[in-house]
UniProtKB/TrEMBL annotation:
PANTHER family: SPECKLE-TYPE POZ PROTEIN
Matches recorded under InterPro entries: BTB/POZ_dom, SKP1/BTB/POZ_sf
BTB domain sequence ranges: 148-215
One family name in Pfam for this protein: BTB
UniProt organism field: Plutella xylostella
Protein known as: BTB domain-containing protein
Length: 306
């Protein structure tokens, strides 16, 4: 049985950030080459982090010398996830990894570390995960007044926008603005029961690629209605990174009541893994949970609380 192990110890997650210490258990003698793999760690619900340690152990000048090389693999858990970026820190060194696939290669750490540091837990890792985005050219028109030609009306006010930008971001907007609808003729869309703050959040996303810390429930409902799949996924990401024992019940009821199918599997996945929602599995009854990361074979896991 291989006694060589590398793993993360004292793992702490808060929001979309995490920290831990790398710990190595190592036994080797004589000229040897060892490859030690850590388990796959689910970080912030939607990504996987794995550590690989290559150790060349050899005899030189009357003593054994170890030459360890640390590499990291960071990937999204599901092919349907948005592309992710990890800003990673290993002790005082930084590393940025962009994940566009469910499986990716290992990237070498920017510095080398001794076996003694690894075995004593002196190598600390910390990271912040976010959605990978590119600059939005529409940002130049965010404060524009001259080319405004459309308004989104809520229950307590309206927000001015540009119809060609709206049409480019939502198939629902495009259908309204190019068909024989009154919205196209009147230049205004009445979003009944939607507050102006939510409409402003929608504009902030469309023009600036930003989403709010609060108000995600109303924003994801509006995005779902407008068939804005990318915005729905971004909202899901922020909901998951803020998931706690205290708010899980709210988000679970909210997703079911509003038929937010993109959110429900991820919430139940958190229960199945018993991370942030540890202790509430007794309230889940008769759910069929699509296993995150296994969409290809449509494997389903029955979660029955008995």
């Amino acid at each position: 049985m291989d006694k060589n192990k590398i793993y993360l110890k004292n793992y702490i997650q808060k929001g979309n950030s995490f920290s831990a210490h790398m710990m190595l258990e190592f036994e080797c003698s004589g000229n040897d080459h060892k490859v030690v793999m850590s388990p796959e760690y689910v970080v912030c619900s939607i990504a996987v982090l794995q550590v690989k340690l290559d150790i060349l152990y050899y005899y030189s000048y009357a003593q054994y010398v170890a030459s360890p090389i640390i590499t990291f693999r960071f990937s999204k858990r599901s092919k349907d996830c948005l592309n992710l970026v990890l800003n990673f820190k290993i002790n005082n060194s930084t590393l940025t990894i962009v994940s566009t696939e469910c499986s990716g290669g290992f990237i070498q750490a920017p510095e080398s570390y001794s076996l003694s540091d690894l075995m004593s837990g002196n190598v600390k890792v910390a990271g912040v995960i976010d959605i990978f985005t590119v600059p939005n050219p529409s940002s130049a028109l965010y404060d524009d007044k001259d080319l405004i030609d459309f308004s989104l009306k809520g229950i307590d006010g309206s927000v001015d926008v540009h119809r060609h930008i709206m049409a480019a971001t939502s198939p629902v907007f495009k259908a309204m603005l190019t068909g024989p609808w009154r919205e196209a003729k009147q230049g205004i869309l009445d979003l009944k029961d939607i507050k102006i703050s939510t409409i402003q959040h929608l504009k902030d996303y469309i023009y600036l690629n930003t989403v709010p810390e609060a108000g995600l429930d109303e924003l994801i409902k509006l995005a779902h209605f407008l068939s804005m799949t990318t915005l729905v996924k971004i909202c899901v990401f922020h909901i998951l990174t803020g998931l706690t024992l205290e708010n899980f019940l709210y988000w679970n009821h909210f997703a079911e009541a509003n038929n937010i199918s993109e959110l429900i599997p991820w919430l139940l996945d958190s229960v199945r893994r018993s991370d942030v929602t540890l202790g509430i599995t007794d309230i889940i009854t008769s759910y069929e949970v699509l296993t995150i990361g296994n969409e290809g074979n449509e494997e389903k896991i029955r979660q029955d609380a008995e």
